[in-house]
Write a structure and sequence with these properties.
31% of the residues lie in helices and 23% in strands. The protein is of the alpha/beta class. It folds into 2 domains: 2-22 and 263-396, Lyase, Ornithine Decarboxylase, Chain A, domain 1 (Beta Barrel), CATH 2.40.37; 25-260, Alpha-Beta Barrel (TIM Barrel).
Protein backbone atom coordinates (compact mmCIF):
# COMPACT_ATOMS: atom_id res chain seq x y z
CA UNK A 1 0.00 0.00 0.00
CA UNK A 2 1.31 3.44 -0.91
CA UNK A 3 2.29 5.83 1.86
CA UNK A 4 2.18 9.62 1.62
CA UNK A 5 3.29 12.40 3.94
CA UNK A 6 -0.21 13.88 3.93
CA UNK A 7 -3.58 13.74 2.20
CA UNK A 8 -2.61 16.86 0.26
CA UNK A 9 0.67 15.30 -0.83
CA UNK A 10 -1.28 12.28 -2.08
CA UNK A 11 -3.56 14.47 -4.18
CA UNK A 12 -0.74 16.54 -5.61
CA UNK A 13 1.32 13.46 -6.48
CA UNK A 14 -1.39 11.24 -7.96
CA UNK A 15 -4.45 13.35 -8.94
CA UNK A 16 -6.59 10.28 -8.13
CA UNK A 17 -9.40 9.38 -10.48
CA UNK A 18 -11.10 7.23 -7.83
CA UNK A 19 -12.10 8.08 -4.26
CA UNK A 20 -9.35 7.38 -1.75
CA UNK A 21 -9.56 5.71 1.65
CA UNK A 22 -6.85 7.37 3.72
CA UNK A 23 -5.65 5.23 6.62
CA UNK A 24 -3.98 6.76 9.68
CA UNK A 25 -3.01 3.72 11.76
CA UNK A 26 -1.27 5.83 14.39
CA UNK A 27 -4.61 7.41 15.23
CA UNK A 28 -6.12 3.97 15.87
CA UNK A 29 -3.15 3.03 18.03
CA UNK A 30 -3.52 6.19 20.13
CA UNK A 31 -7.26 5.64 20.58
CA UNK A 32 -6.82 2.00 21.60
CA UNK A 33 -4.08 3.00 24.03
CA UNK A 34 -6.39 5.63 25.54
CA UNK A 35 -9.07 3.03 26.31
CA UNK A 36 -6.60 0.54 27.69
CA UNK A 37 -5.08 3.22 29.90
CA UNK A 38 -8.35 4.68 31.19
CA UNK A 39 -11.05 1.99 31.11
CA UNK A 40 -11.08 -0.03 34.37
CA UNK A 41 -11.61 -3.37 32.69
CA UNK A 42 -11.01 -5.31 29.48
CA UNK A 43 -11.27 -3.53 26.13
CA UNK A 44 -12.52 -5.45 23.08
CA UNK A 45 -12.19 -3.77 19.69
CA UNK A 46 -15.47 -3.99 17.73
CA UNK A 47 -14.09 -5.22 14.42
CA UNK A 48 -17.22 -4.37 12.43
CA UNK A 49 -16.47 -0.64 12.67
CA UNK A 50 -13.33 -1.05 10.56
CA UNK A 51 -11.95 -4.52 9.77
CA UNK A 52 -9.04 -3.30 7.65
CA UNK A 53 -5.88 -5.30 8.44
CA UNK A 54 -3.93 -2.05 8.93
CA UNK A 55 -6.36 -1.04 11.69
CA UNK A 56 -6.36 -4.50 13.28
CA UNK A 57 -2.56 -4.40 13.36
CA UNK A 58 -2.57 -0.89 14.86
CA UNK A 59 -4.82 -1.71 17.81
CA UNK A 60 -2.86 -4.92 18.39
CA UNK A 61 0.36 -2.88 18.39
CA UNK A 62 -1.18 -0.72 21.12
CA UNK A 63 -1.43 -3.83 23.29
CA UNK A 64 -5.11 -4.65 22.80
CA UNK A 65 -5.62 -8.42 22.77
CA UNK A 66 -9.42 -8.90 22.76
CA UNK A 67 -11.76 -8.50 19.79
CA UNK A 68 -15.53 -8.33 19.41
CA UNK A 69 -16.25 -10.33 16.24
CA UNK A 70 -19.64 -10.87 14.60
CA UNK A 71 -19.02 -13.37 11.79
CA UNK A 72 -16.71 -16.12 10.61
CA UNK A 73 -14.85 -13.79 8.21
CA UNK A 74 -14.10 -11.45 11.13
CA UNK A 75 -12.94 -14.40 13.25
CA UNK A 76 -10.70 -15.66 10.44
CA UNK A 77 -9.27 -12.19 9.83
CA UNK A 78 -8.31 -11.51 13.45
CA UNK A 79 -7.04 -15.04 14.03
CA UNK A 80 -4.79 -14.80 10.95
CA UNK A 81 -3.14 -11.59 12.18
CA UNK A 82 -3.34 -11.93 15.97
CA UNK A 83 -3.04 -15.64 16.85
CA UNK A 84 -2.99 -14.98 20.60
CA UNK A 85 -6.10 -12.76 20.58
CA UNK A 86 -9.21 -13.42 22.65
CA UNK A 87 -12.19 -13.68 20.29
CA UNK A 88 -15.68 -12.95 21.55
CA UNK A 89 -18.45 -13.97 19.12
CA UNK A 90 -20.83 -11.17 20.10
CA UNK A 91 -23.51 -11.44 17.42
CA UNK A 92 -26.63 -12.62 19.31
CA UNK A 93 -27.83 -14.73 16.35
CA UNK A 94 -25.39 -17.10 14.64
CA UNK A 95 -25.67 -19.95 12.19
CA UNK A 96 -25.12 -23.43 13.56
CA UNK A 97 -22.15 -23.97 11.28
CA UNK A 98 -20.56 -20.71 12.48
CA UNK A 99 -20.93 -21.79 16.11
CA UNK A 100 -19.32 -25.16 15.40
CA UNK A 101 -16.47 -23.74 13.38
CA UNK A 102 -15.76 -20.94 15.86
CA UNK A 103 -15.66 -23.35 18.80
CA UNK A 104 -13.86 -26.34 17.32
CA UNK A 105 -11.54 -24.71 14.75
CA UNK A 106 -10.77 -21.31 16.28
CA UNK A 107 -11.04 -21.97 20.00
CA UNK A 108 -13.79 -19.40 20.55
CA UNK A 109 -15.37 -19.84 23.98
CA UNK A 110 -17.26 -16.53 24.34
CA UNK A 111 -20.69 -16.39 22.70
CA UNK A 112 -23.40 -13.75 22.98
CA UNK A 113 -27.08 -14.68 22.88
CA UNK A 114 -30.44 -13.11 23.59
CA UNK A 115 -32.89 -16.03 23.43
CA UNK A 116 -33.42 -19.55 24.70
CA UNK A 117 -33.41 -20.83 21.13
CA UNK A 118 -29.91 -19.42 20.60
CA UNK A 119 -28.83 -20.99 23.88
CA UNK A 120 -30.05 -24.37 22.64
CA UNK A 121 -28.10 -23.92 19.39
CA UNK A 122 -24.87 -23.08 21.19
CA UNK A 123 -25.18 -26.03 23.58
CA UNK A 124 -25.96 -28.49 20.80
CA UNK A 125 -23.33 -27.28 18.29
CA UNK A 126 -20.55 -27.31 20.92
CA UNK A 127 -21.58 -30.82 22.03
CA UNK A 128 -22.63 -29.61 25.45
CA UNK A 129 -19.25 -28.03 26.20
CA UNK A 130 -18.74 -26.96 29.81
CA UNK A 131 -16.08 -24.32 29.14
CA UNK A 132 -18.46 -21.81 27.54
CA UNK A 133 -18.56 -18.14 28.47
CA UNK A 134 -22.09 -17.05 27.62
CA UNK A 135 -23.00 -13.36 27.48
CA UNK A 136 -26.73 -12.60 27.60
CA UNK A 137 -27.65 -9.49 25.61
CA UNK A 138 -30.20 -7.37 27.50
CA UNK A 139 -32.37 -4.75 25.80
CA UNK A 140 -31.90 -1.22 27.19
CA UNK A 141 -32.88 2.26 26.12
CA UNK A 142 -30.93 3.96 23.34
CA UNK A 143 -32.84 7.25 23.54
CA UNK A 144 -29.66 9.31 23.91
CA UNK A 145 -27.85 7.87 20.89
CA UNK A 146 -27.53 9.18 17.38
CA UNK A 147 -28.21 5.68 16.01
CA UNK A 148 -30.74 3.60 17.93
CA UNK A 149 -29.93 -0.06 18.54
CA UNK A 150 -32.76 -1.12 20.82
CA UNK A 151 -35.12 -2.74 18.33
CA UNK A 152 -33.33 -5.76 16.92
CA UNK A 153 -31.52 -7.48 19.79
CA UNK A 154 -31.85 -7.92 23.51
CA UNK A 155 -33.92 -9.96 25.96
CA UNK A 156 -36.46 -8.14 28.13
CA UNK A 157 -38.37 -8.76 31.35
CA UNK A 158 -39.29 -12.33 32.27
CA UNK A 159 -37.69 -13.60 29.06
CA UNK A 160 -34.35 -12.16 30.20
CA UNK A 161 -34.73 -13.67 33.66
CA UNK A 162 -35.31 -17.15 32.21
CA UNK A 163 -32.40 -16.74 29.84
CA UNK A 164 -30.04 -15.79 32.66
CA UNK A 165 -31.11 -18.76 34.76
CA UNK A 166 -30.79 -21.35 32.01
CA UNK A 167 -27.56 -19.91 30.61
CA UNK A 168 -26.04 -19.96 34.10
CA UNK A 169 -26.49 -23.70 34.32
CA UNK A 170 -24.91 -24.25 30.91
CA UNK A 171 -21.65 -22.33 31.14
CA UNK A 172 -18.42 -21.84 33.02
CA UNK A 173 -18.88 -18.06 33.12
CA UNK A 174 -22.04 -16.01 32.66
CA UNK A 175 -22.02 -12.47 31.39
CA UNK A 176 -24.52 -9.75 30.62
CA UNK A 177 -24.19 -7.18 27.86
CA UNK A 178 -26.16 -4.30 26.41
CA UNK A 179 -25.77 -1.50 23.88
CA UNK A 180 -26.91 2.06 24.58
CA UNK A 181 -26.79 2.91 20.87
CA UNK A 182 -24.14 4.22 18.53
CA UNK A 183 -22.79 7.71 19.19
CA UNK A 184 -24.35 7.95 22.66
CA UNK A 185 -24.33 11.55 23.89
CA UNK A 186 -25.13 11.07 27.58
CA UNK A 187 -22.76 9.37 30.08
CA UNK A 188 -25.65 8.61 32.42
CA UNK A 189 -27.22 6.40 29.73
CA UNK A 190 -24.75 3.72 30.82
CA UNK A 191 -25.74 4.07 34.47
CA UNK A 192 -29.43 3.68 33.57
CA UNK A 193 -28.64 0.59 31.48
CA UNK A 194 -26.61 -0.96 34.27
CA UNK A 195 -29.51 -0.40 36.65
CA UNK A 196 -31.83 -2.25 34.26
CA UNK A 197 -29.36 -5.12 34.07
CA UNK A 198 -28.94 -5.18 37.88
CA UNK A 199 -32.70 -5.50 38.37
CA UNK A 200 -32.87 -8.51 36.03
CA UNK A 201 -29.88 -10.23 37.63
CA UNK A 202 -31.49 -9.75 41.04
CA UNK A 203 -34.76 -11.27 39.80
CA UNK A 204 -32.94 -14.22 38.24
CA UNK A 205 -30.92 -14.78 41.43
CA UNK A 206 -27.80 -15.80 39.50
CA UNK A 207 -24.12 -15.05 39.85
CA UNK A 208 -22.72 -12.97 37.00
CA UNK A 209 -19.04 -13.07 36.05
CA UNK A 210 -18.93 -10.42 33.29
CA UNK A 211 -20.62 -7.06 32.77
CA UNK A 212 -20.09 -5.89 29.19
CA UNK A 213 -21.21 -2.30 28.60
CA UNK A 214 -20.82 -2.66 24.83
CA UNK A 215 -19.95 0.25 22.60
CA UNK A 216 -21.62 3.56 21.86
CA UNK A 217 -18.69 5.74 22.93
CA UNK A 218 -19.03 8.92 20.86
CA UNK A 219 -16.60 10.88 18.72
CA UNK A 220 -16.72 14.55 17.74
CA UNK A 221 -18.39 15.71 14.54
CA UNK A 222 -18.98 19.33 13.54
CA UNK A 223 -22.61 19.23 14.74
CA UNK A 224 -22.09 16.78 17.63
CA UNK A 225 -19.86 17.71 20.56
CA UNK A 226 -20.19 14.94 23.17
CA UNK A 227 -18.84 15.15 26.71
CA UNK A 228 -15.25 13.94 27.15
CA UNK A 229 -14.75 10.19 26.93
CA UNK A 230 -13.37 10.20 30.47
CA UNK A 231 -16.82 11.32 31.69
CA UNK A 232 -18.37 8.20 30.14
CA UNK A 233 -15.70 5.97 31.66
CA UNK A 234 -16.13 7.58 35.09
CA UNK A 235 -19.90 7.06 34.96
CA UNK A 236 -19.49 3.42 33.96
CA UNK A 237 -16.89 2.79 36.66
CA UNK A 238 -19.04 4.33 39.40
CA UNK A 239 -22.15 2.45 38.28
CA UNK A 240 -20.26 -0.83 38.12
CA UNK A 241 -18.93 -0.40 41.66
CA UNK A 242 -22.43 0.30 42.93
CA UNK A 243 -24.13 -2.69 41.25
CA UNK A 244 -25.46 -4.62 44.27
CA UNK A 245 -25.67 -8.03 42.60
CA UNK A 246 -22.02 -8.54 41.69
CA UNK A 247 -19.18 -10.14 43.62
CA UNK A 248 -16.04 -10.62 41.54
CA UNK A 249 -17.34 -9.77 38.08
CA UNK A 250 -15.12 -8.45 35.29
CA UNK A 251 -15.98 -5.25 33.41
CA UNK A 252 -15.75 -5.16 29.61
CA UNK A 253 -16.36 -2.60 26.87
CA UNK A 254 -16.50 -2.86 23.07
CA UNK A 255 -15.50 0.47 21.47
CA UNK A 256 -15.58 0.55 17.69
CA UNK A 257 -16.25 4.03 16.33
CA UNK A 258 -14.28 5.67 19.16
CA UNK A 259 -11.16 3.69 18.24
CA UNK A 260 -11.18 3.88 14.46
CA UNK A 261 -13.10 7.02 13.40
CA UNK A 262 -10.05 9.28 13.46
CA UNK A 263 -7.96 6.61 11.75
CA UNK A 264 -9.69 7.16 8.42
CA UNK A 265 -10.21 10.04 6.02
CA UNK A 266 -11.89 9.93 2.64
CA UNK A 267 -10.87 11.93 -0.42
CA UNK A 268 -13.42 12.62 -3.15
CA UNK A 269 -13.40 14.74 -6.27
CA UNK A 270 -15.97 17.36 -7.30
CA UNK A 271 -17.37 16.35 -10.69
CA UNK A 272 -19.84 19.23 -11.06
CA UNK A 273 -21.16 22.24 -9.19
CA UNK A 274 -24.73 23.50 -9.47
CA UNK A 275 -25.10 26.52 -7.23
CA UNK A 276 -24.90 25.25 -3.67
CA UNK A 277 -24.91 21.59 -4.77
CA UNK A 278 -21.73 19.61 -5.37
CA UNK A 279 -21.71 16.33 -7.30
CA UNK A 280 -19.00 13.97 -6.05
CA UNK A 281 -17.46 10.66 -7.11
CA UNK A 282 -18.61 8.95 -3.90
CA UNK A 283 -21.66 9.24 -1.70
CA UNK A 284 -24.48 7.51 0.16
CA UNK A 285 -23.86 4.08 -1.35
CA UNK A 286 -20.16 4.36 -0.64
CA UNK A 287 -17.93 5.48 2.21
CA UNK A 288 -20.18 8.46 3.04
CA UNK A 289 -23.13 6.26 4.06
CA UNK A 290 -23.41 7.73 7.57
CA UNK A 291 -23.72 11.28 6.25
CA UNK A 292 -26.71 10.28 4.15
CA UNK A 293 -28.50 7.77 6.34
CA UNK A 294 -27.53 8.74 9.88
CA UNK A 295 -27.41 12.51 9.43
CA UNK A 296 -23.75 12.86 10.39
CA UNK A 297 -21.85 15.87 9.10
CA UNK A 298 -18.22 14.95 8.56
CA UNK A 299 -15.49 17.53 9.05
CA UNK A 300 -14.25 18.51 5.59
CA UNK A 301 -11.53 20.48 3.86
CA UNK A 302 -10.54 21.24 0.29
CA UNK A 303 -7.11 19.93 -0.71
CA UNK A 304 -5.38 22.54 -2.88
CA UNK A 305 -1.74 23.17 -3.73
CA UNK A 306 -1.87 26.85 -2.81
CA UNK A 307 -4.03 28.07 0.03
CA UNK A 308 -4.07 31.70 -1.10
CA UNK A 309 -6.34 34.19 0.67
CA UNK A 310 -8.93 32.72 2.99
CA UNK A 311 -12.15 32.14 1.08
CA UNK A 312 -15.57 32.75 2.54
CA UNK A 313 -17.21 29.52 3.65
CA UNK A 314 -20.74 28.69 2.62
CA UNK A 315 -23.04 25.70 3.15
CA UNK A 316 -23.34 23.03 0.48
CA UNK A 317 -25.40 19.92 -0.01
CA UNK A 318 -23.67 17.00 -1.69
CA UNK A 319 -24.71 14.36 -4.19
CA UNK A 320 -23.03 11.03 -4.83
CA UNK A 321 -22.31 9.47 -8.24
CA UNK A 322 -25.22 7.01 -8.56
CA UNK A 323 -28.48 7.58 -10.41
CA UNK A 324 -30.51 7.25 -7.20
CA UNK A 325 -31.90 10.52 -5.83
CA UNK A 326 -31.45 9.31 -2.23
CA UNK A 327 -27.71 9.46 -2.91
CA UNK A 328 -27.79 12.82 -1.11
CA UNK A 329 -25.84 14.27 1.81
CA UNK A 330 -27.85 17.19 3.13
CA UNK A 331 -25.17 18.46 5.51
CA UNK A 332 -24.80 21.38 5.42
CA UNK A 333 -21.11 21.05 4.65
CA UNK A 334 -19.16 24.27 5.04
CA UNK A 335 -16.70 24.65 2.16
CA UNK A 336 -15.04 27.53 0.30
CA UNK A 337 -17.29 29.71 -1.82
CA UNK A 338 -15.08 29.24 -4.90
CA UNK A 339 -15.09 25.42 -4.89
CA UNK A 340 -15.34 24.03 -8.41
CA UNK A 341 -15.12 20.96 -10.62
CA UNK A 342 -11.83 19.13 -10.17
CA UNK A 343 -11.32 20.16 -6.54
CA UNK A 344 -10.60 17.42 -4.05
CA UNK A 345 -12.31 17.28 -0.65
CA UNK A 346 -11.16 15.25 2.33
CA UNK A 347 -13.77 14.14 4.86
CA UNK A 348 -12.60 13.23 8.33
CA UNK A 349 -13.93 10.71 10.87
CA UNK A 350 -14.71 8.19 8.12
CA UNK A 351 -12.50 5.50 9.64
CA UNK A 352 -15.62 4.16 11.35
CA UNK A 353 -18.17 2.51 9.05
CA UNK A 354 -16.81 4.26 5.95
CA UNK A 355 -15.19 1.66 3.76
CA UNK A 356 -16.96 -1.06 5.76
CA UNK A 357 -20.38 0.02 4.45
CA UNK A 358 -19.46 0.83 0.85
CA UNK A 359 -21.33 -0.99 -1.94
CA UNK A 360 -20.88 -1.40 -5.68
CA UNK A 361 -24.32 -0.08 -6.60
CA UNK A 362 -24.57 1.33 -10.13
CA UNK A 363 -21.06 0.07 -10.91
CA UNK A 364 -19.35 2.44 -8.52
CA UNK A 365 -17.38 1.31 -5.47
CA UNK A 366 -13.79 1.05 -6.66
CA UNK A 367 -11.38 2.81 -4.31
CA UNK A 368 -7.73 3.55 -3.82
CA UNK A 369 -6.23 2.85 -0.40
CA UNK A 370 -3.25 4.68 1.03
CA UNK A 371 -1.60 5.38 4.36
CA UNK A 372 -1.13 9.06 5.15
CA UNK A 373 1.06 10.41 7.92
CA UNK A 374 -0.59 13.74 8.70
CA UNK A 375 -2.90 14.26 11.67
CA UNK A 376 -6.65 13.52 11.53
CA UNK A 377 -8.91 16.46 10.73
CA UNK A 378 -10.32 16.31 14.27
CA UNK A 379 -8.86 14.44 17.23
CA UNK A 380 -9.53 13.96 20.93
CA UNK A 381 -6.43 11.78 21.32
CA UNK A 382 -3.76 14.04 19.86
CA UNK A 383 -3.04 16.74 17.31
CA UNK A 384 -5.48 17.54 14.52
CA UNK A 385 -5.52 19.61 11.37
CA UNK A 386 -8.47 21.66 12.71
CA UNK A 387 -9.53 22.97 9.27
CA UNK A 388 -11.19 26.36 9.33
CA UNK A 389 -14.56 25.01 8.19
CA UNK A 390 -14.68 22.63 11.17
CA UNK A 391 -14.04 25.56 13.52
CA UNK A 392 -16.73 27.57 11.73
CA UNK A 393 -19.32 24.82 12.11
CA UNK A 394 -18.63 24.43 15.81
CA UNK A 395 -18.95 28.17 16.30
CA UNK A 396 -22.19 28.27 14.34
CA UNK A 397 -23.59 25.57 16.59
CA UNK A 398 -22.68 27.58 19.67
CA UNK A 399 -20.26 24.93 20.98
CA UNK A 400 -16.99 26.83 20.78
Amino acid sequence: MDRHQSALALVLATQPELPVHCLRPDAARKAAAFFMRNFPGEVLYAVKANPHPVIIDAVYAAGLRAFDVASMPEIELVASRCPDAKLAFMHPVKSRSAIRKAYFEYGVRIFALDSLDELEKIIKETNGARDLHLVARIAVSSDHAQHKLSGKFGAVGHEAVLLLRQARSACEELGVSFHVGSQCMRPDAYRAAMQTVSDLIRQAQVTVDIVDVGGGFPVAYPHLSPPPLKDFIAEISAAFESMPVLENADLWCEPGRAICAEAGGHIVRVELRKGDALYLNDGAYGALFDAAHDGLVFPARVLRAKKGPRRRLKPYRLYGPTCDSIDTLEGPFMLPSDIHEGDYIEFGQTGAYGAALATRFNGFGDYIEAIVEDAPLVSVYGESEAPENVVALHAAAGRG
